[in-house]
Predict the 3D structure of the following.
Amino acid sequence: MDYSVVQQCMHCGLCLPTCPTFVETGRERSSPRGRIALMRSIADGELPLSREFAEEMDYCVGCLACQTACPAGVQYVSLLEKGRAASENAGLLDTPMRRVYRWLGLRLLMTRPWLLRLVARGVAVQQIPWIRRTLYMIGAMRLAPKTLRDLEPSAPPIDAPFSDARIKTVETPPAEWWSGKPRARVAVLTGCVQDISFARVNRATVDVLLAAGCEVVTPRSQPCCGSLHAHNGDLDQAKEQARRTLDMFDWQGLRAGPLAFDSVDAVISNAGGCGSHLRHYADLLADDPNYATRAKAWDAKVRDVQEFVWQVVGGGQQAVGSEATPQSRLERVLTREPSALAAGGATKRVTYDASCHLCHGQKVVSQPIELLKRVPSYQFVPLAESDWCCGAAGVYTITQPEQAGKLLERKLGHVKAANPDVLATANPGCMHQLNLACRDDASLANVRVAHPMELLAEACRASDAS
Ligand code: SF4
Ligand code: SF4
């Protein structure tokens, strides 16, 4: 437990109304303040590490809404990760099956990009409708373990081909999108789940960055960044994944190729949960003499794609590439003021659900909305409680299905009230959770769930065609 963080809590309780598990139960111990008090008692030796503590760590959604609300700046994410790691290391929730699934998921699949992609190819075949029907008809699915059978209908659809086949290592903006020297050179992170289930979002991200006038570098066969490990109490493997991610880049100019870290102006993430973790490698690797300095340089360059694009097109305080830069294709597409869009010409309604780790972890709040307000042909409609968790929260739908279901129901009520054609969100877990919900709810069957980058990329292509 990180005592220096624990003792920052002054017990004011301002975080309580923002905490989904406190609002649901009304129990102090299921609130941020209660969990921090438990941690402090354990650190002081007044309470033992107990099953009750482990269950509270597991029940926490990890949404970080408490971090936004906290006037004392308590970094709850660090407490949660260390609390979960302590509980996992002590084996407080262990069962033989849980151990097997954690090892298979966190230690086998999520540490070997080639294996994850191989398994995903197999799942893609199983997801072809007639093959899936046949497998059920001949009873082959009964051979799979019950847990996998239960999870199969809600498995994320595989989006092949994956990012390496859709994106070249180095791409420069076409002349009709940007003339002259690229205004910035950026590296794009393709992720693990994002890569196998939303490779189209990675392609759209690259397209938008090209349309903004950037040169884009995309390392091949990228490893998982380790956020899944950190959020699920496996901090040792999270550190190893962070080292592997840093090793993708050439830090001393020793290798021939495009991946010299110094030549990159920003490292771009398009997944809220991953980005929130990727920005804190310095904390994670502070005790590693071989990586601590690199991790600091890394943290300074990681940006969420929406934050970066909004800054590039001049929405931020300072445009990248300054001196009288000519407009890029993206700027030309986004020139219309939101008021002009609302007044006429908008044919579809788009709303935005914030990923918890994007808004509470990375503090990227207004940029996605400002971008969406300017996408031609769309009218932006606000979503009530858009910063309240949708229940996806990594593997929360598996570990806490009842509470995840309640959070989803609350979210869907607001989506129905907003009545959008497109529900935009920027995290693979949220996209999948909301996609499934819209599929299963007749009144939302026509709602498309999309990443803001997909809408921006489509607008750029439509502008090419017109
Ligand atoms: S992370 Fe979310 S669920 Fe957990 S204590 Fe904070 S507000 Fe509550
Ligand atoms: S808002 Fe911050 S200081 Fe106040 S109780 Fe919550 S965590 Fe502690």
Observations:
- Residues 9-15, 32-33, 36, 66, 69-70, 72, 74 surround iron/sulfur cluster (ligand 2) (CB under 6 Å).
- Residues 104 and 291 are 27 Å apart (CA to CA).
- Residues 401-418 form the longest helix (18 residues).
